[in-house]
Amino acid sequence: MKKLSLLSIGKIAMGAVLAYGFLNFIDQPDVMIESFKTGFLEGILGK
Q1: DSSP 24
Q2: Given its phi and psi angles, is residue 46 left (phi above 0), alpha (psi -120 to 50 degrees) or beta?
Q3: Tell me: the pLDDT tens digits for 27-43?
Q4: Residues of the chain with pLDDT > 70: what percent?
Q5: What are the angstrom distances between the C-alpha of 43 and each of 2, 22, 30, 32?
Q6: Whole-number Å distance between alpha carbons of 28 and 44
Q7: CB-based burial of residue 39 (10 Å sphere; 0-12 exposed, 13-18 middle, 19+ buried)?
Q8: Contact indicator for 31, 24 with CB cutoff of 8 Å
Q9: Residue 26 dihedral angles phi and psi, to the nearest 5°
Q10: Containing H/E element for 20?
Q11: What is the number of other CB atoms lying within 10 angstroms of the CB of residue 32?
């Protein structure tokens, strides 16, 4: 039973982190999109 509650707490924490990142993404879309594009292109080109 303890293991299950710890797992659900972990899921809630992950959801909170994702929601926080998503809100930051909405807050500064231009910067995030630009950095994502450059990171994505560098990943493809292998730089």
Answers
A1: H
A2: left
A3: 666 776 787 788 888 87
A4: 83
A5: 41, 22, 20, 16
A6: 24
A7: exposed
A8: no
A9: -70, -35
A10: helix 2-27
A11: 14
Q: What is the DSSP letter of 46?
A: T
Within 13 Å of residue 38, how many CA atoms lie on the same side as its CB? 5
Q: In this structure, what token pair is assigned to residue 18? A: 């994702």
Pull the structure tokens for residue 35. 């950095």
This prediction's pTM: 0.41
Q: The tokens 């710890």 sit on which residue?
A: 6
Structural contact between residues 25 and 32, judged by C-beta atoms closer than 8 angstroms: yes
Q: For residue 46, report the phi and psi dihedrals to the nearest 5 degrees.
A: 75, 35
